[in-house]
Structure formats: C-alpha cells, structure tokens
Write a structure and sequence with these properties.
CATH topology: Rossmann fold
Order of helices and strands: HHEHHEHEHEEEHEHEHHH
Bound molecules: thiamine diphosphate
Radius of gyration: 19 Å
Strand order of the largest sheet: 2-1-3-4-8-7
Number of helices: 11
CATH architecture: 3-Layer(aba) Sandwich
Structural class: alpha/beta
Helix content: 25-40%
Length: 293
C-alpha cells in the first residue's frame, strides 16, 4: 500500500488486509503441482502458494524481471512453476479456468487438485454456477473458496444477494457447502477435508469464509459508501493477531519469536521492493513478444 501510494506501482491495487487466514489455511494443504486461480485481490494466495516475492514485486512494478515480464501487473500475476494460474481482473473469470485445470488433472489421472478463490460478488456470475455444475456432475477435484467480505466493490452483499450464506448455493449442485469464520485453523480443517475428498475422487466442495475487508475496494478508495462503525468493526477482527494470541496462550511461540518472524517478513518485503526498483522496464521493442495471433 505504501509503495503504491508513493506512485511506484502503476494501475490499480486491491489489497487483502484482514483476509490473511484463507490463503494460509488453504495453501498449507497444497503442493506446488496443485493449481490455484485467484481474483484481483489474490496476492495473499500467491505468497502462501510460494511465489518468489522479488519477482512478484517486480511484476507489480511492471518490470521486465516480473513473472509475466511486466505485462500482467497486479491483476494477472501468474507463476505456473508453482501452479499459480493467475490472478484475474475479470470478476468470476478465474473460476472456469481452474475448473478446466481440475478436469485436466482428472483426465491425466493425477491426484492434483485445483482451487478457485473468489469473492461474494463473483458468486453471482454465471461462471460460478456453470463451474460448480460441471465440477459436480463430472466429480472434478476442484475446491471453490468464496471469501465473503460483505462487499462487491461499493455494494454491500445485502444489495446484491437475497441470501447471506453463499455456501447454501452448493445444495443446488449437490456438493458440500461449508462455512468458516476468518480463522486460520478453522479454514485449515475445512480445506483439509475437502482436499482429501478431492484427491480421492470425491468431487468438489464449496467453502465460504466469512471475512472482513479492512480497506477500500482499491487502494485510494475513500469508502464514502461505508460508515465508520463498519470499518472499525472490520479492523477490530484481526485474524493474524488472533492466531498470535493462540500461539502465545498455548506456549508454541514466545513474543520474542513472533517479533523475530515479523522482522524477517519486513526485511524480505524490503528486499523485494529494492529488487523491483532496481529492475528495468521492458523495452518498447519487446511489446509484441508473447502475443499470439
Ligand atoms: C466481469 C466484471 N464485472 C465487473 C467488474 C468490476 N469489478 C471489479 S471488482 C468488482 C467486485 C468484486 O467483488 P467480489 O467478487 O466480492 O470480490 P472482492 O473485491 O470483495 O474481493 C467488480 C464489480 C469486473 N472487473 N469484471
């Protein structure tokens, strides 16, 4: 957010602050050869799936050393070596792509799984319904993870859906629909079961995570449509701090160890930003490289 606000990252940036539990709880179960496809708010998943931070940051900066040679920026960040099929700027656009990856895994007879993550707004797209249906009837190894943060851009879920629980839509396709809180261990448990089911031929699962978007839809969004109480309530629920408290209470980590981890993360991020700054932009003469005609 700081680097974007300083004007160093072009385009739009959608951060997932407040929504860290789902990427961590999910990706702990995934192998490098499992597939994931995310949304415009997908950086957390890319990091949790193991993307190299330096090249990811270079991509956000639009630099040549980025994973997509500076072509994708934030919203189509991909790294196929880690099964990261891409963020997607088209709301609901990643869901059928991931469903196709699930079909490919089944067709090749592997035990890979494919995971589509998306928001509550995307659950109204035709792609969501078509993908759940075909994944269900073909018993595909696909997980559908809906991060319901209560907002689709500037619209509250109350204005775009008559039901509160997106997970209920699973019933229409005869697959399990699970609801979790924004709690890393709860998500880890739910995903664990769904991944085992998918790898063993048991078909898809829809998991809805009830979470909160701390900030605006994009960095710089003044959030005139949202009142102070709603924002403060969201920020009052911190899935990282909650997990820290649990680790301390169970004496798994000390405060000092937690501080050490935070320091490590801070310096890893600083290194990534320095790397991105030092990289050149792609040369205009390379503009047509990588295009199909
Ligand atoms: C097909 C399509 N329609 C509209 C938009 C504009 N748009 C961008 S993000 C967004 C809302 C997405 O909300 P949600 O799926 O809940 O994800 P969140 O932003 O909450 O993570 C919309 C409508 C778009 N990018 N693509």
């Amino acid at each position: 957010m700081e680097v974007f606000a300083a004007g160093e990252i072009p385009g739009f940036l959608h951060v997932s602050v407040g929504q860290e539990a789902a990427p961590v709880g999910l990706c702990a179960h995934l192998r490098d050869d499992d597939y994931i496809g995310t949304t415009h708010r997908g950086h957390g998943y890319a990091i949790a799936k193991g993307i190299d931070l330096k090249r990811a940051m270079a991509e956000l900066f639009g630099k040549k050393q980025g994973f997509c040679m500076g072509r994708s920026g934030s919203m189509h960040l991909a790294d196929m070596t880690k099964g990261i099929m891409g963020a997607n700027g088209i709301v609901g656009g990643g869901i059928p792509i991931v469903t196709g990856a699930g079909f490919a895994a089944r067709y090749r007879g592997t035990d890979q799984v494919a995971v589509a993550t998306f928001g509550d707004g995307a659950a109204n797209q035709g792609t969501f319904h078509e993908s759940l249906n075909i994944a269900s009837v073909m018993n595909l190894p696909v997980l559908f993870i809906c991060e319901n943060n209560g907002w689709a851009e500037f619209s509250s879920i109350r204005t775009h859906s008559k039901i509160e629980d997106i997970a209920n839509r699973a019933a229409a396709y005869g697959i399990p629909g699970i609801i979790t809180e924004n709690d890393v261990l709860e998500i880890h448990d739910a995903v664990g079961e769904a991944v085992v089911r998918a790898r063993n031929g048991g078909g898809p699962t829809l998991i809805e995570v009830k979470c909160d978007r701390w900030h605006g839809h994009y960095v710089g969004d003044a959030q005139k449509y949202r009142n102070r109480e709603n924002i403060e309530a969201a920020m009052g629920k911190d899935c990282i701090k909650n997990f820290e408290r649990l680790l301390l209470a169970r004496k798994i980590l000390t405060k000092r160890e937690i501080d050490g981890i935070e320091e490590e993360i801070r310096s890893e991020l600083a290194e990534a930003v320095d790397f991105a700054r030092s990289c050149p932009f792609p040369d205009p003469s390379e503009m047509m490289d990588g295009l199909y005609a």
